[in-house]
Design brief:
The complex is a heterodimer of chains A (626) and B (200). With 626 residues, chain A is an alpha/beta fold. Helices cover 41% and strands 16% of the residues of chain A. The two termini of chain A are 31 Å apart. Chain B is of the alpha/beta class and 200 residues long. Chain B has a single domain, classed as Pyruvate-ferredoxin Oxidoreductase, domain 3, CATH 3.40.920. Chain B starts with a strand and ends with a helix. The chains are: A alpha/beta (626), B alpha/beta (200). Chains A and B meet through strand 1, strand 8, helix 9, helix 12 and helix 13 of A and helix 1, strand 2, helix 2 and helix 3 of B. Bound molecules: thiamine diphosphate (TPP) and iron/sulfur cluster (2 copies). The site of one iron/sulfur cluster (SF4) has 10 residues of chain A, from helix 19.
């Protein structure tokens, strides 16, 4: 997909919103890009990583979003344009540095791309509306609606940032980041990659008495940005009638198409800059209206602003928004069309509710399809061994990574999931007040991202501490296989010495065992040994993400060894079904009569099933047979 | 003009790439393109619907297709064809389905049997103008030794039967820019599909 990102100026290509943002950053001449992955923002750094060498800028996957932001900001202080991209939760992590950098300002363009995820397509934690951060940080925020705007706004964000020496948010939502659209490419500006930190006493810290002065300066900048860009980034699409619609992001796209479908020519005010909001722009739009409908996903931020402005300029204005549309979940044409219909007294062509009832009827009794761990996933093996040793009674502290799928049956070993690294911190709190066995599951990327502070805290404060299992699959798998400090290579593909998790933990004074994640016997032995220890103890369950193993073998033309079930042996033993259902490798298929067979197309040859069934039930196929 | 395609199947089985192929072919044809590619849990056996919309720039804005409004549904997995009915309706929608079953683990965990193919088409018919089922994946496995090429076979079939209103040559070119690594086999798969589709 990335081949099109470096297309010629003037060329029309189809890009994903995130790809268009990456292209925009390249066109803007960035010298540095740094990020920690998080869907729905992940393709921005993925694309930047893939073109960094060719275009000639520096790219890195940092250990977390805060470090990534600081990396980008440091470069921008030296006069080099820089971008960082993150998902909404990433901003929670980065925010401690983002807020003060708004005060100190930057010398070159600094853009913080942040993607919200209404409906939580790839986010389990909350439906936070990041637009509040723009208000909290007093930082400008602009919001594209489609891939073309993703490209254009990214460049514009750099211009605004540089002109006013303030970092700028480029905010998207899932359906902006993950939508595709025709994009016309622009000129690529030669990247400036070298700069210099010029000392400027009083500029790069905000300690008293500078604090208030800098704060005031931010106000001044926002005022000037509103003045200059309020009319340019916000736009009125004229139409008929005295009811108007105010929309932003992908909601604007739904609005236009919805009006088209209902044959309406209603005026629309498109908001491209959600902070600072332009009072002048809103006034101009609502002054002569009887009513407005505000289409904004998540929180009623614009709605509240409009109500505030209306008090002065048009007190009789009827403001519709969250009274007709939900606060939770993303919108689509089906949510918006009936609302438009209601406001304008028009009926959509299809009765959505009746149609949906028919669909539900047609779907009745079908087996559900939920995401599951891949066949041969090391996490499945680790979960299985831990359950062998700790059963159903232990408290299982969950975290964020592929292993979050361990929430679902039959694994059910993620009793809570809160935020990256929170498994260990919460487990510590539980252990302080309860004698229950607590097992922490944490991925390797999560370990480096935010697992270190709670684990050092064990060494500091916990004579009796939870048992920690680091599920080390050598990569950040869930978000698309990005490297981390333990992977042995950087975001630009350079080989580096991997940081070993066991070395880090030894430095904390904890007891460590490192075991292959595909070896059931060794896993169980190590777990039994660590179970008897009270103090800080960590099992590093090490096994490469099977998807990567498979890709690697495939690219080298090496066939994966497949496993088969001996149907006769299966009949000899009892209760094997139960093992198969408990282990739940997706390659296991229920046979027509009784028993299971392994679908050879799906088996990724980890060999763990051979270990958990009685000897002789599962055997490896010889390579020649493949 | 506006044409709405939905592609559905199981994560990691080439749905995303097929969406890119169709989007690029439409772009080559000079259409304005819009759509959704939900990235995220792609590798882990979940369902991932992909939307591609093409036509004239002033008719297409939303990235997603509206409920009951798909013109074409390409289902790379039969069970998912049923779940795609949300986007389908009798007057409008053509279904092109590969009969290759990808049985979800929850079928055995929850003891819910996977329905027979006849049962699946019976459920889809009320939502479709036409249903065409092909053994795309089996053919790919038999003739090209790689089941996953079934997705390209199915795109070929949809093109051959003109359920996908795009020039064969543009689809070919789109395959060339999208899957350069396994180009030859993909092009062969596309030809196989075209033949299937033309005789439909
Ligand atoms: C603060 C924050 N940043 C990023 C994410 C996105 N995210 C979800 S899972 C994950 C990967 C975790 O990797 P790892 O712990 O190694 O587990 P794996 O997926 O490899 O099993 C990331 C980065 C998030 N949820 N929160
Ligand atoms: S991507 Fe890797 S870590 Fe994630 S489920 Fe698949 S094999 Fe496991
Ligand atoms: S069938 Fe067995 S060897 Fe194959 S992937 Fe599943 S557990 Fe591993």
């Amino acid at each position: 997909m990335t081949s099109e990102v470096l297309g010629r100026p003037g060329e029309k290509v189809v890009l994903l919103g995130n790809e268009a943002i990456a292209r925009g950053a390249v066109e803007a001449g960035i010298g540095v890009a740094a990020a920690y992955p998080g869907t729905p923002s992940s393709e921005v750094p993925m694309v930047l990583a893939s073109v960094a060498d060719e275009v000639g800028f520096y790219f890195e996957y940092s250990t977390n979003e805060k470090v990534a932001f600081e990396t980008a900001a440091g470069a921008a202080w030296c006069g080099v344009r820089a971008i960082t991209a993150m998902k909404h939760f990433g901003l929670n992590v980065a925010s401690d540095s983002v807020l003060p950098v708004v005060y100190t300002g930057v010398r070159s363009g600094l853009v913080v791309m942040v993607a919200d995820d209404p409906s939580g397509w790839s986010s389990a934690q909350s439906e936070q509306d990041t637009r509040y951060y723009a208000r909290l940080a007093r930082m400008p925020m602009i919001e594209p609606s489609n891939p073309q705007e993703c490209l254009d706004y990214t460049k514009l964000a750099f211009d605004i940032s540089e002109e006013f020496e303030i970092p700028v948010f480029l905010r998207t939502t899932t359906k902006v980041s993950h939508s595709i659209g025709t994009v016309e490419l622009g000129e690529i500006r030669e990247p400036k990659t070298r700069g210099e930190f010029r000392k400027d006493p009083g500029r790069f810290y905000s300690i008293r008495p500078r604090l208030q002065e800098l704060h005031g300066r931010v106000d001044d900048k926002l005022g000037r940005i509103e003045e200059k860009y309020g009319q340019r980034l916000n736009q009125v699409y004229p139409g008929e009638g005295n009811i108007g619609i105010i929309a932003l992001g992908v909601g604007f796209e739904y609005c236009r198409e919805g009006l088209l479908q209902l044959g309406l020519t209603t005026p629309i005010a498109k908001i491209g800059m959600t902070h600072p909001m332009s009072e002048e722009f809103i006034t101009g739009f609502i002054e002569d209206k009887e009513a407005v409908l505000i289409l904004e996903e998540l929180e009623p931020i614009i709605e509240d602003f409009v109500k505030q402005v209306a008090k002065d300029v048009n007190p009789k204005l009827v403001v519709h928004g969250k009274d007709m549309l939900p606060r939770s979940g993303e919108y689509n044409l089906e949510t918006i069309l009936p609302v438009l219909g209601e406001v304008f007294g028009k009926k959509p062509e299809v009765d959505f509710k009746a149609h949906e009832r028919q669909v539900r009827e047609a779907e009745r009794g079908l087996p559900p399809r939920k995401p599951v761990l891949c066949p041969g996933c090391p996490h499945r093996s680790t979960f299985y061994a831990v359950k062998e040793v700790f059963g159903d009674r232990a408290v299982y502290a969950g975290d964020i990574g592929c292993y979050i799928l361990g929430i679902f049956e039959p694994i059910e070993m993620q009793d809570f999931v809160i935020s990256m690294g929170a498994s260990a911190g919460l487990a510590h709190g539980i252990t302080r007040v309860s004698d229950q066995d607590v097992v922490v599951f944490m991925g390797d990327s999560t370990f480096f991202h935010s697992g270190l502070p709670p684990l050092v805290n064990y060494s500091f404060n916990a004579k009796r501490s939870p048992l920690v299992v680091v599920m080390d699959n050598a990569i950040t798998a869930m978000t698309g296989h990005q490297p981390h400090p333990g992977s042995g290579f950087t975001g630009m593909g350079e080989k580096v010495k991997p940081v070993k998790i066991e070395d880090v933990i030894k430095g904390f004074g904890a007891k460590v065992r490192v075991v292959g994640a595909f070896n059931q016997r060794k896993l169980i032995e190590a777990l039994e040994e660590l179970r008897e220890i009270e103090g800080p103890r960590v099992l590093v369950a090490r096994g490469e993400c099977r998807l990567l193993t498979r890709r690697r073998l495939k690219s080298k033309g090496i066939p994966i060894v497949k496993y088969v079930i001996d149907a006769d042996q299966w009949k000899v033993h009892e209760d094997l079904e139960e093992i198969a259902e408990q282990f739940a490798c997706p390659a296991f298929m229920q046979g027509e009569e009784s028993g299971y067979y392994i679908d050879l197309d799906l088996c990724w040859g980890c060999g763990v099933c051979k270990q958990i069934f009685p000897v002789g039930v599962v055997e490896a196929l010889r390579r020649e047979a493949l | 003009m506006k044409f709405d395609v939905m592609l559905t199947g199981v994560g990691g089985e080439g749905v995303l790439t097929s969406g890119v192929v169709i989007a690029r072919a439409a772009n080559l044809e000079g259409h304005y393109v819009r759509g959704v590619q939900l990235h995220g849990l792609a590798q882990r056996g979940g369902v991932i619907p992909t939307f591609v919309r093409f036509g004239s720039e002033d008719e297409i804005h939303s990235p997603g297709i509206m409920q009951a409004n798909a013109d074409l549904i390409l289902a790379f997995e039969p069970l998912e064809a049923v779940r795609a009915c949300y986007y389908a309706r009798k007057e409008k929608t053509i279904f092109v389905i590969s009969d290759h079953r990808y049985i979800p683990v929850y079928s055995s965990i929850l003891d819910i049997p996977y329905p027979k193919l006849g049962e699946i088409t019976r459920r889809v018919i009320p939502f479709s103008k036409k249903v065409s089922v092909f053994s795309a994946h089996r053919l790919a496995k038999e003739k090209l030794g790689n089941m996953i090429l079934g997705t390209t076979v199915l795109i070929g079939a949809a093109t051959g039967m003109e359920a996908l209103p795009l020039e064969e040559d543009n689809v070919r070119k789109a395959i060339e820019t999208t899957v350069p690594g396994e180009l030859e086999k993909n092009l062969e798969a596309f030809e196989l599909g075209l033949k299937l589709g033309r005789s439909e």
